[in-house]
Amino acid sequence: MSLAVSGNYYGAGSGVDAYTGKFIPEIWSGKLQVKFYQTTVLSDITNNDWEGEIKDQGDKVEIRTVPSITINNYLKGQTLAAQVPTNDVLELLIDKGKYFSVVVDDVDDVQSDLKLMDIFTNDAAQQMKIAVDTDVLGALVGASVSANEGATAGAISGDINLGVSVGGSKAARKVTSTNVIDYLIAMGQCLDEQNAPEDGRWVVIPAWMASKIKTSDLKDASITNDSMSPLRNGRLGMIDRFTLYVSNLLPSQTGIAGEGADASVKAFSCFAGTRDAITFASQITKMESLRSTTTFGNIVRGLNVYGYKVVKPEALVEGFFYKG
C-alpha cells in the first residue's frame, strides 16, 4: 500500500486498478507495504546435475545410471562368467511451464514516482518460485520406495510406522513435543538402511512441527551441547545429520484416520532425503517486453519451463504426520 494526500483522480476502466489513485498533484510515499513470501526450499533439496540445454517445453534430458556389478563366488580352476554391464536410461521430461504477463499503463508509468514494472516483475519472480515449489513438493507424495514410507518402513527392520499418505487406508501419525525427535531419527534410520550417504541430508517440515522440536527435550542446551537452546535463538540447525527446512508449501490432507484423528484433522506429508533423490531442471526461456495491443501500456512477460524426477527413490523418505 502507498499513502497519499487527497487530490484529483485520473479515471480507470472497469476492472482496472488505478495505481496512480488520486494522483494529481499528490505526494505519494516511496515505500510500499512489506510483503512476506512463503519460504521456498527446492534449490536446497534437489540437484541440477542433468539440467543440460533446455530450450522449451517438451525437451528431455537423458540420465544414464550406474550399472550394478555382480559379485560371484570363486572355486579354483572354474570357468569365469563375464558380465556385460548394462545401465537403464531415465528420461527427465521438461514438460511443465509457468508464465507471468504484467502490463503497466502509460498513464501510471508517467505519473507514478515508483518503478512499477520493477516492483511487479520482482513479485512475479517470487510467486514463480512459490508456484514451482508447491508443484514439486506435491508430486513427492508416494514417490519414495515402499521401504521408506508407510506403516512398515525400513528396508531391513520393516517395523517403522511413518503413516500412510496414499491408498485406501490412509492414516497419519500424531506428533508431539515428546516424540517429534523420535520420528526424525526414524526417518534417518530409513536412509541408513538404504545405505544412503550421510552428507547432504535434509528434511522439510511444517512450521508447527518446528515448534514441537523447539519445545522438545532439545530446548535444554546441555543436551545439544550448544551455547543456547533452540527455544532461545529459534535456530533448528541439524538433527541426526539432517539440515532442517521449514515450509508452508508441504502437501496436506484432511479426513485422515489414525491415532485419534478425526475428519477435521489436517495431516502433512514431510520429506527427508539426500540431494541425490530428486533432480530438477528449470530455465526462463522467454523474457520479453512489448507494447500492448489493447491499451496504452507496456507488457513484460516471462515463461519458465521446468521438469523434475525422483531419480533415487531409495534416497527419499516420507512421513505423514499431524499435530498432536
CATH class of the largest domain: Alpha Beta
Class of secondary structure makeup: alpha+beta
Mean pLDDT: 81
The tally of beta strands, per DSSP, is: 12
State the CATH topology of the largest domain.
Answer: phage-related protein like fold
Distance between the termini: 38 Å
Cα radius of gyration in angstroms: 26 Å
* Total of helices: 7
CATH architecture of the largest domain: Alpha-Beta Complex
Number of domains: 2
How helix-rich are the residues, as a percent range? 10-25%
Low-confidence stretches: 1-10, 21-28, 221-225, 230-234
Instruction: Outline the biggest β-sheet.
Output: 7 strands, mixed
Share of β-strand residues: 25-35%
Q: What order do the SSEs take from the amino end to the carboxyl end, as H and E?
A: HEEEHHEHEHHHEEEEEEE
Q: What coarse outline follows from CA principal-axis ratios?
A: flat
Description of the molecule:
The chain is of the alpha+beta class. The protein contains seven helices and twelve strands. The strands form three sheets. Strands 4, 5, 6, 7, 8, 9 and 12 form a seven-stranded mixed beta sheet that branches. Strands 3-11-10 form a three-stranded antiparallel beta sheet.
Task: Write out key terms for the chains shown.
single chain, 324 residues, alpha+beta, phage-related protein like fold, 2 domains, seven-stranded mixed beta sheet, three-stranded antiparallel beta sheet, flat, disordered N terminus
Quick summary:
The protein folds into 2 domains: 1-34, no CATH class; 38-58 and 99-324, phage-related protein like fold (Alpha-Beta Complex), CATH 3.90.1690. The chain is 20% helix and 26% strand.
